[in-house]
Amino acid sequence: MFRISQFFYGHPDGLQLHGKMQVCIDLTGFSGIHLIFVFYCLCILEFKQVTKEICKLPSFFSPSLFRKIDVNSTGLVTRDAFIDYWVNGNMLTMDIATQIFKILKQPDLKYLTQDDFKPILRELLATHPGLEFLQSTPEFQERYAETVIYRIYYYINRSGNGHLTLRELKRGNLIDAMPHADEEEDINKVLRYFSYEHFYVIYCKFWELDIDHDFLIDKENLIRYGNHALTYRIVDRIFSQVPRKFTSNVEGKMGYEDFVYFILAEEDKSSEPSLEYWFKCIDLDGNGVLTRNEMQFFYEEQLHRMECMAQEPVLFEDILCQIIDMIKPEDESYIMFRDLKGSKLSGSVFNILFNLNKFMAFETRDPFLIRQERENPTLTEWDRFAHREYIRLSMEEDVEDASNGSAEVWDESLEAPF
């Protein structure tokens, strides 16, 4: 299957040229594809073409793959070392998900941790033309990388334990997103995980709520989210850490990672991770079903808010009938998680129970939102939200820049995060 031939450059007696050996690797695989690729004994900067052309991996995997082969940290990968790892180690015969898993994984573990993704994101930030402008602000490069990792784990690590398995990696869509990020010059077109615009929206929304900029937010901060859209009762449940245990390690405070999980759950209730997040919130006794009383407990605050705003209140009995019609549960006396997974209107049920602004938009069937969905049916709720918010934030920044341009004194402490 594989023919590996070696020849030397410069002298027929096998002398090396400038200490570097030229190698021809001639690979003929099951498909009959014939590839001849010439390379020297390479340093890390020269290894990128091997990563792309021979290994068929995204170029930002090059340093990680190089270090996996260069186990003694010599700074060079020889022909024998490459063949031993890639061919003799059976990497060549593995599917790309397994290859990526083995390259990123620590040798003594059977899963990927968040830290395992940091080297490839450092390389992406250092080399991608769409992220070049961030190179002057290392702190925001770090925030971008963190956000990408949090998004990956939110959607793919379904066990929620921070240990991403090969099975989870194969079931998710990250493997398709990686080559897209490598080949697409406009990083904002890579909507899954890597979009800078999506990161910008998440970070700015957090920044807006984090008034004292200690990188922590409390209940009173979060209640301001979305123009006070959420009820106090649902915010209490989030801070009880029922849907997800906080990583901030500060009592009564939500950290940035916790906020990323919250905003993704709040702004895309069509996704399974979001449905699970909010199901746990509404399931007060944790018995795996949503009862009439549990739903009524959360809706009571919505009803009170409608009355305070002089809006015509919708009684719970009517709402319950509407929810049953929307979800069509197996048993109409309660709702199970699988009932929600089987309905396209599940997200609207949660909005009815604890997000007044979205509930009102649903009731009035906002024509703008309906038109958006029809024009771009492949976009998720999160994609549409992030696009709207990015435009809004950009316009606000332009206005700020214009007003600050005429000021003689600029207070850097008030500067936007970007």
User: How many E strands?
Assistant: 7
Radius of gyration: 26 Å
The low-pLDDT segments are 1-24, 28-37, 406-417
Major sheet details: 3 strands, antiparallel
Helix-strand makeup class:
mainly alpha
> Average pLDDT across residues?
87
Overall morphology: globular
Helix residue percentage: 40-55%
Write out the strand line-up for the largest beta sheet, numbering strands in chain order. Answer: 1-2-3
Strand content: 5-15%
Enumerate how many helices there are, as a single number: 21
Distance from first to last alpha carbon: 53 Å
SSE order: EEEEHHEHHHHHHHHHHHHEHHEHHHHH
Structural descriptors:
globular; two-stranded antiparallel ribbon; three-stranded antiparallel β-sheet; 418 residues; mainly alpha; disordered N terminus; disordered C terminus
Q: How would you portray this structure in words?
A:
The protein is mostly helical. Strand 2 and strand 3 form a beta hairpin. Helix 6 packs across helix 13 and helix 9 packs across helix 21. It is globular and about 75 Å long. The N terminus and C terminus are likely disordered.
How is this fold's topology laid out?
Elements: E1 2-6, E2 23-28, E3 34-39, E4 42-43, H1 48-53, H2 62-69, E5 76-77, H3 79-88, H4 96-104, H5 118-127, H6 138-156, H7 166-171, H8 174-183, H9 196-209, H10 219-222, H11 225-228, H12 232-239, H13 256-267, H14 272-282, E6 289-291, H15 292-308, H16 316-327, E7 334-336, H17 337-341, H18 346-354, H19 356-364, H20 367-375, H21 381-405
Antiparallel strand pairs: 1-2, 2-3, 4-5, 6-7
Helix pairs in contact: 5-6, 6-9, 6-13, 9-21, 13-14, 18-19
